[in-house]
Amino acid sequence: QLQLMESGGGLVHPGGSLTLSCTASGSASSRVGLAWYRQAPGKQREWVATQARGGARRVADSVQGRFSVWLDSGKNTIYLYMNNLQSDDTAAYYCSTEFGGRTYWGQGTQVLVSS
Q1: Mean pLDDT, to the nearest integer, of 81-94?
Q2: Above 90 in pLDDT, residue 24?
Q3: Sign of the CA dihedral running 54, 80, 39, 107
């Protein structure tokens, strides 16, 4: 019913910025909100940001002021703009959504913040 595909990860220097994108496809793709999670090496996966289909946006306190999220409804694509990246932001970033009682995940995109 739903497939999620992330892109945009890569290597960035501390203080740099990066924009991730995630496109939803499938029969329900135009009906769901989307969220970003991340998982750093050796740590649990944590929620980063959510953009609901109705417009509500939320960003985790840990990245507030540095990360922003928005949804292009026409493209069923959610973006995560990350600014002033630090080494602690190094992680695999995953796109996720819930529909029909099931949670869907993308394959993830890796972000490495290093000098």
Answers
A1: 98
A2: yes
A3: positive
